[in-house]
Amino acid sequence: MEKHRVVIVGAGFGGLFAAKSLRKVPVQVTVVSGTTYHLFEPLLYQVATGILSEGEVAPPIREILRGRDDLDIRLGWVTDVDAGASTVEVSAPDGTIRTIPYDSLIVAAGASNSYFGNDRFAEHAPALKNIDDALEVRSRIFHAFEMAELEEDPAVRQEWLTFVIVGAGPTGVELAGQIAELAHRSLKGQYRRADLSTTRVILIDAVDRVLPAFDGSLSAAALKQLRRLHVDVRLNTKVSDVDAYGVTASDGYLRARTKFWAAGVAAAPLADRIAQSTGAGTDRAGRIEVEPDLTVAGHPSIFVVGDLAATGLPGVAQVAMQGGRYAARVIARRIAGRPAPKPFKYFDKGNMATISRFSAVADVGPLHLSGLIGWLGWLGVHLFYLIGFKNKVSTLLHWTVSFLGRGRAERITTTQQIHARNALRVVAMLPVSAAAEPLGGAAAVPSGGAAAVSSGGAAAELPGGAAALLAGDQVAPVHDQGLRR
Questions:
Q1: Domain residue ranges of the chain, discontinuous segments joined by +
Q2: pTM value surpassing 0.70
Q3: pLDDT for 205-246, tens place per residue?
Q4: Which one of 54, 174, 410, 437 is the catalytic residue?
């Protein structure tokens, strides 16, 4: 008899914990993921600021789920779901489309960053949602300090030493705190011409307090610590535009060559396809409305967990973990012919955010911890949930170097980490026919800038007037981060 087929879309917290929970259930599991790794997103900002390497927060999926005959892992992106035929359409990296049938489907595709309809901001203010983002952000941060060292004009040098982060949630607060620590502590004395003590870190948000999901007392504690780090926190301030040289906010134009976006998330594009196929409703952020058992109404074989489900719960790792486990438990009971479990109920284990070394806030039930106690709790919790013994050990060593000393072990950056990503952004905006041209050696050149050249010799024009090679042994500068005046 053929085993019950379970397809899991995504290998984030929801997908991974669903796959692990199905280990002893008589099913055939197929995990479809757009990356080869599982990302421990809560520590991603530490990759971006030179504390940890990408491997420490992104162990390979195949290594985590090794030794299982019941499990198949496919690299690709689910582009469509046919609820009537019980199949998913998967696009491989080479463009090949494959169809995978399922008896149960667990969708844990997560969320993407949202620029609230202003996607052009991404060119100048990258977000922090994946490893590619983290490497680009890291390159921009350390590149800014190097450019400040080279710059002779004091006004322009200050623009290089000004960092703007849009969004005062955990990611924005953590990023702001770490950039401030880099400038005022970790890199102190390493630059001769650039006075890093003049570095400005500006944190902007339209809300009235930092960390709005936390208890008010913890928001106040976080704000106090940020100001101790000389972070300029501007609340009740809206951003209307971002360009190569700065940010247009409701309180004026801020000149800054380096900007980052941490101001919102939206459902992954797959949510829209699922809604069309199943007739499911969606909320304002595009998340799919689900039943109390996390299934789509009228389609009990389709589960939606984590950030993609409109449950009214926060978009944190624990929601996805518990949702993945719950979906696996429902499937196991169905196969065993047992009654369905009670409706999904989220057990809130609390929220945590770090501001700087020795300072964090933790909202755990009735406990509201801040300062050193909150920081120690934050270290313990994140180390506990980090996957892999080797990763735990190496992370602990890197934390010791960075927090007790001044070192940042992961400061290596390349210009390609900035420029190639902008080239890819341009290619993503091209029509399908034009984007496919480079393999044949023809040019796909929109208007207003210079060309990004692929290994096939074709060109896709970049904004700003300079070229970056997508392959080969040279990289020419790209005018993206305000590299030229």
A1: 4-34+76-113+266-336, 119-263+350-404, 415-469
A2: yes
A3: 999 999 999 999 999 999 999 999 999 999 999 999 999 999
A4: 174
